[in-house]
Amino acid sequence: MVSSQVAVNLLYFIWYDGYISAAFYLNHFFGVNMMFGIFMVAFVHWFKFCTISRFSAWAELLFGVNFLIIQQDNLYNILFQVIVGSVAIAATLVYYARKYPLCSLSLLMSFISSMFTTRSCEDAFRKWDDKTESKVHQKLFSHRHEYK
Amino acid sequence: MTKLKVKYTRNYLATGMNINSATISVLIGIITLIGGFLAWWLAKVLSERKEDITQTLTLKYLRDDFLKMQEDIKEIKNETKKIPIIEEKLKHLHPK
């Protein structure tokens, strides 16, 4: 939801006329309902399996509160939504990668960070191998039942 | 011709309007697509590499456990002077 809202808001900058002509439908489909925002925040905090969506739920609630204050679909409102939405998406991705260290996203982020630290593709692969080996050990074999 | 183009662009800038915002959007779209494809491909390669690392570690731990087990069997053999049944069963798993 947050991604689609950010995309819709970006449309304002990319294709202003299109955004204005379709504003009613876009806001109807992607706009924030305050009660739904509160429900989402309560939901993701109550159920542990939804913790990954926490940042997005808070972003939805912030969108709703922001619209209560500004009350217009103007540039400030749109910029606010783009910035808050992008931060929420980035935070969600980072949280996901940290929670699941062996997922593709985490592996990719780990490799990119290795590239930045080593500044060489070969060394980055070596460093990434060490990191991944320790992650695999930590995640899969740290509680293994050794023979005796 | 080039001079005319430059002049036109400058005038366009002076009015405060965006120059070719559609072209810039398309360029950003293409760069995002290429970047996304590269990221997807790299993630796939890294996932395969991670699987290799996992398999290597699994085999290493299995081998360690097996060697320890073998030592135990030797001890039992020395103590009892009998061949335990388990050794017979593990014969075909002997590491080369």
Walk me through this protein's architecture.
The complex is a heterodimer of chains A (148) and B (96). Helix content of chain A is 80%, strand content 0%. Chain A is mostly helical. Chain A folds into 2 domains: 2-99, no CATH class; 104-141, no CATH class. In chain A, helix 1 (2-14) packs across helix 6, helix 4 packs antiparallel against helix 5 (54-70) and helix 6 (75-99) packs across helix 7 (104-118). Chain B has one domain (2-93). Chain B has 3 helices and no strands. Chain B has helices at 2-14, 21-80, 85-90. At the A-B interface, helix 7 and helix 8 of A face helix 2 of B.
Characterize the biggest β-sheet of chain A. Answer: none
Question: What is the helical fraction of chain A, as a range of percent?
Answer: over 70%
Summed up, the helix count of chain B is: 3
Low-confidence stretches of chain B: 4-17
CA-atom Rg of chain A in angstroms: 21 Å
Strand content of chain B: under 5%
| Helical run tally of chain A | 8
Helix content of chain B: over 70%
Descriptive terms for the model:
heterodimer, A: 148 residues, mainly alpha, B: 96 residues
Short description:
The complex is a heterodimer of chains A (148) and B (96). Chain A is mostly helical and 148 residues long. Chain A has eight helices and no strands.
Compile the SSE list and pairings:
The complex is a heterodimer of chains A (148) and B (96).
Chain A: H1 2-14, H2 16-21, H3 23-30, H4 34-46, H5 54-70, H6 75-99, H7 104-118, H8 121-141
Helix pairs in contact in A: 1-6, 4-5, 5-6, 6-7, 7-8
Chain B: H1 2-14, H2 21-80, H3 85-90
